[in-house]
Specification:
Layout (H helix, E strand, L loop, with lengths): L1 E3 L6 H13 L5 E5 L2 E4 L4 H10 L3 E4 L1 E6 L4 H4 L11 E5 L5 H15 L2 E2 L6 E8 L2 E7 L26 H10 L7 E4 L6 H8 L3 E6 L2 H13 L6 E4 L13 E5 L13 H11 L12 E8 L12 E11 L2 E10 L1
Parallel strand pairs: 6-7, 6-8, 10-11, 10-13, 11-12, 13-14
Antiparallel strand pairs: 1-3, 1-4, 2-3, 5-9, 8-9, 14-16, 15-16
Helix pairs in contact: 1-2, 1-5, 5-6
The structure holds S-adenosylmethionine (SAM).
């Protein structure tokens, strides 16, 4: 079970669905309530990895009990988690403190475990979903992520076009990239996406047309002591000097905040999607993904392109800008 953050409309579930596909090809994620997703992933290590990678996920754990009645969750608890030597805590995003307390008491009497709110061996997460109550367990405790120290203003090199780490993380995750793959951001700017992909241990490379921006991006990567392949100064609207890329995610330049070097955004978008396909690795084992964030009013034209539009998410920024995140898939 994954508990999604309530920040954006469609992105949190799309991110979990992408990560489930990334690490467990045969599993599918489902949205069982507004903020609750379940899947058949049963390997705790994969659940931990997905939870840690996801920008818009508050909790991830294995479902250990389901019931139509809240307190019956304790009785239906799987026997593996009934270990008197262990400690536990109960948390929830959908239940009140009192309900968590009552469930905690029921779990205590069923398992003889002690409560430890700070460092529980088992963190039980109880949620009310449309079809009843769900109880999941995480053995890796509360989720910890430090977005603050990677926010645009905290980096060595800042531009107003820089995006926040959580959004950058989601763009990378939608590309279904995994450790050992080669990830490219072809309009990398200050390096927001590269920072997140490198933090996740993915081989990462960037391109930017403007020399001083490419240098700034490099400075940011070095500032976080991240292991990455580098940033190339090149034009991503023509054939790229790169092959064997496994996944692409990017935020294309538009108007005021970022340099378009005189080209209209629509032209940049079309030229880029026309030529990016050739830079992908030719292994046909898995589909390839190219994630493009662009203003929603700029239409994406894919006639005779080897990529197809799989899904699109809209993000309202202000009166004059709604962003579209287009998930393009090949194969
Ligand atoms: C929207 S910004 C990217 C911002 C980036 N996501 C960040 O968080 O810093 C777009 C970047 O594309 C670069 N750019 C513009 N035209 C380009 C082209 N033809 N090829 C490669 N990069 C280009 C700009 O210099 C700018 O840094």
């Amino acid at each position: 079970m994954f508990v999604l953050s309530g920040e954006e409309l469609t992105l949190p579930f799309a991110e979990i669905r992408a990560l489930v596909e990334t690490y467990s090809k045969d599993s599918k994620a489902e949205l069982v309530d507004k903020r609750i997703s379940t899947s058949s992933v049963s390997d705790p290590e994969i659940v931990r990895k997905i939870t840690e990678r996801a920008g818009y996920c508050r909790f991830g754990g294995l479902i250990v009990s389901r019931s139509e009645n809240l307190l019956s969750l304790a009785n239906a608890l799987e026997i593996d988690f009934v270990d008197p030597g262990k400690t536990f805590a109960v948390d929830s995003f959908t239940l009140s403190k009192e309900e968590c307390g009552e469930l905690g008491a029921a779990i205590k009497s069923r398992t003889n475990q002690k409560v430890s709110l700070e460092k529980p061996d088992y963190l039980f997460q109880a949620e009310a979903a449309k079809e009843g109550f769900l109880l999941a367990v995480s053995t890796h405790g509360y989720k910890t992520q430090s977005w603050r120290n990677r926010r645009p203003r905290a980096r060595k090199f800042f531009l107003p076009s820089a995006i926040y780490p959580k959004l950058a993380r989601v763009l990378v995750n939608l590309s279904r990239v995994r450790e050992g793959d080669l990830f490219l951001d072809p309009f990398c700017g200050t390096g927001s996406l590269l920072i997140e992909s490198a933090v996740m241990g993915i081989d990462s490379i960037g391109i930017d047309l403007t020399r001083w921006i490419a240098r700034g991006g490099l400075l940011n990567m070095k500032g976080f002591s991240l292991d990455f392949l580098g940033i190339i100064r090149a034009d991503s609207t023509s054939q790229l000097p790169l092959r064997n890329i496994d996944a692409v995610a990017t935020d294309i330049p538009y108007g005021r905040a970022s340099s378009t070097k005189g080209k209209a955004t629509a032209q940049i978008l079309h030229e880029f999607v026309d030529c990016i396909s050739e830079s992908f690795s030719s292994s046909s084992e898995n589909p390839k993904y190219c994630i493009v964030m662009h203003p929603s009013h700029v239409e994406l034209k894919l006639e005779s392109n080897s990529f197809q539009l799989q899904e699109q998410h809209l993000l309202y920024v202000h009166r004059n800008l709604t962003r579209a995140i287009s998930v393009l898939r090949k194969g």
